[in-house]
């Protein structure tokens, strides 16, 4: 398995919003739209909370001017944690906080991060993607594509 290439379809995986009962089909969510998805190793972790998530909040208006229908933050956490993290920032109505509880997306994109047990087991690598009509038009991983900044909002904005 390899990370997605430009032109590949978004995988048909289930993510969760707010509670384990609110299942979201990522494929359906991305159908017929321009969507940004960014992934972080963990909710409430320092870099994710101080830099990554705030970069998208700061650029929200500029991103929406580029006709982006959804901005989605994903992490390998439970949906309650993702909801609480979103509530601690002004994400409501701006960024959907989705949990990859079962690592379906993380595995499908081949971006499992071995944290050596430091974050309660494997997590998602820091990444960012632009999806247009269900297909990848941009995909960057912090580990292999130039560090964290290539997954932050300014780099995404310049690629829209």
TrEMBL record:
It is an enzyme of class 1 (oxidoreductase). Keywords: Antioxidant, Oxidoreductase, Peroxidase, Redox-active center. GO terms for cellular component: mitochondrion; peroxisome. The keyword ATP-binding does not apply. Its EC number is 1.11.1.25. It catalyses: [glutaredoxin]-dithiol + a hydroperoxide = [glutaredoxin]-disulfide + an alcohol + H2O. PROSITE patterns: THIOREDOXIN_2. One of its GO terms (molecular function) is thioredoxin peroxidase activity. Transmembrane segments: none annotated. It holds the Pfam family Redoxin. The active site is at 48 (cysteine sulfenic acid (-soh) intermediate). The keyword Electron transport does not apply. Residues 4-160 form the Thioredoxin domain. GO terms for biological process: cell redox homeostasis; cellular response to oxidative stress; hydrogen peroxide catabolic process. Belongs to the peroxiredoxin family. Prx5 subfamily. Thiol-specific peroxidase that catalyzes the reduction of hydrogen peroxide and organic hydroperoxides to water and alcohols, respectively. Plays a role in cell protection against oxidative stress by detoxifying peroxides. This is Glutaredoxin-dependent peroxiredoxin. The lineage of its organism: Eukaryota, Viridiplantae, Chlorophyta, Pyramimonadophyceae, Pyramimonadales.
């Amino acid at each position: 398995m390899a990370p997605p290439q430009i032109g590949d379809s978004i995988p048909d995986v289930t993510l969760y919003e707010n509670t384990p009962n609110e299942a979201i089909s990522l494929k359906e969510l991305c159908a017929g739209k321009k969507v940004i998805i960014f992934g972080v190793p963990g909710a409430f972790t320092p870099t994710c909370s101080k830099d990554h998530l705030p970069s998208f909040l700061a650029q929200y208006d500029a991103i929406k001017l580029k006709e982006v229908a959804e901005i989605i933050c994903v992490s390998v956490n439970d949906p309650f944690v993702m909801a609480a993290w979103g509530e601690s920032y002004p994400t409501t109505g701006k960024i959907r906080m989705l949990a990859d509880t079962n690592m379906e997306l993380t595995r499908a994109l081949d971006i499992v991060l071995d944290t050596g047990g430091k974050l309660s087991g494997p997590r998602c690598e820091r990444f960012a993607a632009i999806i247009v009509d269900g297909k990848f038009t941009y995909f960057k991983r912090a580990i292999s594509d130039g560090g964290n900044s290539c997954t932050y909002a300014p780099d995404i904005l310049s690629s829209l």
